[in-house]
Sequence to fold (154 residues):
Amino acid sequence: MTRPRVLFVCLGNICRSPLAEAALRAEADRVGLDIEVDSAGTGDWHVGEPPDSRAIAQARRHGIDISGYRGRQVRKADFDDFTHVLALDHDNLAALEDLVPPGRENRLSLLLDHVEGCEGQPVADPYFGDADGFERTWSQVTAAARALVSELAR
Ligand code: 4NP
Fold:
């Protein structure tokens, strides 16, 4: 089996996709799955920046330090480098559909399509909301991480 390489993509790469990255790293570690995980944004505003302080705090509440993560923008070559490119919401998915090279479309999907009962749903953007939004993001990305690990371990 080729080692899965998973890239999470949101808008800014400072709130949702770093939390998805942290959740999948933790779940893969827990079950001993050898996997590569990264995250990126469709936008370039936060390139080189650490995650949003509220995202750092959310991960820390679950014992995970994401303060060393740095934002980067998604690029076409990511579809060669990653076996799974997962969009956090429909806008992210549309941006990635514009970027994906021919023949790589099967690597791209909406994250919550991998979670039974949540197909077609977005991970809502918590950036302009309150701390509750980050709790909800965390619960969505941890559910996704569990689903992905069982899918990838098959
Ligand atoms: P993210 O959230 O896509 O989950 O990282 C956002 C971060 C920054 C902005 C929007 C959403 N922004 O407008 O800068």
The CA atoms of residues 58 and 98 lie 32 Å apart.
